[in-house]
Amino acid sequence: MEIDWAKGDVILVDGMEVAHASRAWWRERAEVQIGPELWHYRSEHRGTLVAELDGVVRFTARRSGVFSSTWSVDVGDQLQMRQASWFRTRLAITRAGAPVGEASSSGIFTTRPRMTLDLHVDTRAACFLLWVAHIEFNREQASNGASAGGAT
Question: What is the pTM of this model?
């Protein structure tokens, strides 16, 4: 299963358009139209991300610690996303410790994620997983920018 956050904020699953995202640039929020459903993704606080439909939280992702890039994601299945490479350009996705996929950025100058999963998940869950990867890549990029900006 290939999931891609393509240009124009279109989300593709196996090459087929399944959703359109509208991201807030100043906050970790997005509205994602998946078929007739309008999902609201947001950060509750620095360590928790949620996906709501009709005001009810359906999916959650919790960061394991302030300085950690490991996320526990509940999308019906319990999955984990964690840094997979030294350069922090990939996230490994596991279920019960076994690898089931990987997320990476779509290019060197973008934080738009692309994901490959060896298991089938619902389209709504796949979109949320992609957003969690997007948030992690954004946070990493902001962290690297802050580190580089402080160097003299």
Answer: 0.87
